[in-house]
């Protein structure tokens, strides 16, 4: 799974943009600007950008902060990451010289980092400069200037880019145009609609129709938690759901992918179905379960973190929030758990309340209890 809303390469874009836009910078253009700012900081060993990104060096397997005094590596060996966690996920280890994990960076870089995370988490709200100014208790002018100098783009361009990518993901997932725009924080104004159209290079309807020509195959089988549905695109599993009846499961799939062609295919999915059942019973520890799911940058962070909780163990929502470096985001973590599209494969059942209460579960609290009990028993 990719981890950043803006900087990661487009995944599975179903269509190419047909003409470049002049109305507003596209997400790709914003990513390019941020990239350019990072190259400059890399070349200048710019201390003021420490904490806003790290760079990994493929020839040594080490990652550094921008100001690292070591000799600059060749550019073709350099990859940028938003933070140390991402670099480590990609298999790099921290440089012993500049200790990129030891510094939090300048106050400016910390502020901009916090702003980016806030924007990603609140993309469905009106993110005006005034709203940000209130949230971060700084003047709009100060916010503007700091953001631009650290990231190389204005906060408005950044918000637009995050929003635009979110709209695309929503459309690709098959949601209707109005829902897609609203969920990404666009109102219903025709101006925004037109701008989205110009950024997409076509109307959102047309984009959606192209995106949803996708075929989703599914199977429904028995599992230790009742009837289970597994659905997959040609790239991987896009849904794992539980319910009491097959009808309920089919209805759920229709709601989630209303425009895709949904085709039952027991044979093609039999292996995953068996693997998943074994996983639940602790008889298979590392089944191959490729996922093809859409997520915001924040959801991805949470979900990747959940996949690291060992079987048989649990973590609290606040512990997960801390783990991903956002200790105040406990409620957002709970929301991300509640919107997990693939039960068990992303083990949101291993997250419980601080006081030991099981908290909620998208597929019912009894199933969560049962799953945890099976995992404990398998480990004992
Ligand atoms: Zn270094």
Bound molecules: zinc ion
Helix count?
Answer: 15
What is the β-strand count? 10
In terms of DSSP E residues, the strand content is: 5-15%
Mind summarizing the main beta sheet? 4 strands, mixed
Cα separation of the termini: 32 Å
Relative helix content:
40-55%
Poorly predicted segments: 1-23
Name the structural class: alpha/beta
> If you average the pLDDT, what whole number results?
83
Shape: globular
Radius of gyration: 22 Å
Strand ordering within the main sheet: 3-1-2-4
Taken in chain order, the helices and strands follow as HEEEHEHHHHHHHEEEHEHHEHHEH
List the helices and strands and how they pair.
Elements: H1 27-44, E1 54-57, E2 62-64, E3 78-81, H2 84-89, E4 93-94, H3 107-121, H4 129-136, H5 140-151, H6 155-172, H7 177-183, H8 190-200, H9 204-211, E5 215-223, E6 226-232, E7 237-243, H10 246-256, E8 261-264, H11 266-280, H12 297-306, E9 315-316, H13 317-323, H14 330-338, E10 351-352, H15 365-379
Parallel strand pairs: 2-4, 5-8, 9-10
Antiparallel strand pairs: 1-2, 1-3, 5-6, 6-7
Bound molecules: zinc ion.
The site of zinc ion has 6 residues, from loops.
Word description of this protein:
This protein has helices at 27-44, 84-89, 107-121, 129-136, 140-151, 155-172, 177-183, 190-200, 204-211, 246-256, 266-280, 297-306, 317-323, 330-338, 365-379; strands at residues 54-57, 62-64, 78-81, 93-94, 215-223, 226-232, 237-243, 261-264, 315-316, 351-352. The protein is of the alpha/beta class. It is globular and about 60 Å long. Mean pLDDT is 83; it is low at 1-23. The site of zinc ion has 6 residues, from loops.
């Amino acid at each position: 799974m990719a981890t950043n809303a803006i900087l990661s390469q487009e995944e599975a874009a179903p269509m190419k943009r047909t003409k470049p836009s002049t109305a507003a910078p596209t997400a790709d253009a914003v990513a390019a600007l941020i990239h350019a700012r990072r190259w400059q900081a890399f070349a200048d060993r710019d201390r003021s950008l420490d904490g806003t990104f790290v760079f990994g060096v493929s020839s040594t397997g080490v990652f550094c902060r921008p100001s690292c005094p070591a000799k600059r590596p060749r550019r073709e060996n350099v990859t940028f990451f938003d933070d140390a966690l991402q670099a480590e996920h990609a298999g790099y280890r921290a440089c012993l010289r500049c200790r990129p994990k030891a510094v939090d960076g300048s106050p400016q870089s910390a502020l901009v980092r916090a702003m980016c995370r806030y924007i990603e988490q609140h993309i469905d709200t009106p993110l005006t400069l005034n709203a940000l100014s209130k949230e971060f208790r700084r003047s709009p002018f100060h916010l503007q200037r700091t953001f631009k100098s650290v990231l190389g783009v204005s906060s408005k361009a950044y918000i637009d880019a995050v929003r635009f990518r979110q709209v695309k993901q929503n459309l690709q997932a098959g949601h209707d145009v109005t829902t897609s725009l609203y969920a990404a924080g666009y109102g219903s104004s025709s101006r925004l609609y037109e701008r989205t159209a110009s950024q997409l290079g076509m109307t959102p309807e047309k984009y959606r129709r192209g995106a949803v020509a996708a075929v989703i195959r599914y199977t429904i089988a028995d599992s230790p938690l009742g009837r289970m549905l597994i659905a997959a695109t040609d790239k991987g599993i896009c849904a794992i759901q539980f319910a009491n009846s097959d009808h309920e499961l089919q209805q759920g799939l229709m709601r989630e992918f209303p425009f895709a062609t949904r085709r039952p295919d027991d044979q093609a999915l039999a292996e995953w179905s068996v693997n998943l059942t074994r996983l639940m019973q602790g008889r298979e520890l590392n089944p191959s379960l490729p996922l093809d799911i859409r997520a915001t940058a924040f959801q991805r962070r949470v979900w990747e973190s959940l996949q690291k909780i060992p079987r048989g163990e649990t973590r609290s929502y606040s512990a997960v929030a801390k783990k991903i470096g956002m200790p105040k985001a406990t409620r957002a973590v709970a929301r991300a758990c509640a919107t997990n599209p693939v039960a068990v494969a992303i083990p949101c059942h291993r997250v419980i309340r601080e006081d030991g209460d099981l908290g909620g579960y998208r597929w019912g609290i009894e199933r969560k209890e049962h799953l945890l009990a099976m995992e404990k028993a398998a480990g004992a």
